[in-house]
Amino acid sequence: MRDHYHLYGLGAALVDMEITVTDRDLTALAVPKGVMTLVDEQRQTELIDYLQDHLVASKRASGGSAANTVIAASYFGCKTFYSCKVANDDNGRFYLNDLAAAGVSTPDLRPPQGITGKCLVMITPDAERSMNTYLGISETLSKDELHPPAIAAADYVYIEGYLVSSDTGRAAAIELRHRARDAKARTALSLSDPAMVQYFREGLLEMIGDGVDLLFCNRDEAMGFTGTHSLEGAAQALQDYCRTFAITCGADGALVFDGEHSYFVESPSVKAVDTNGAGDMFAGAFLWGITHGHDYETAGRFANLAAGKVVAQYGPRLRPEQHQELKREFFGS
Question: Which fold has domain 5-12+64-88+136-331?
Answer without folding.
Answer: UDP-N-acetylmuramoyl-L-alanine:D-glutamate ligase (3.40.1190)
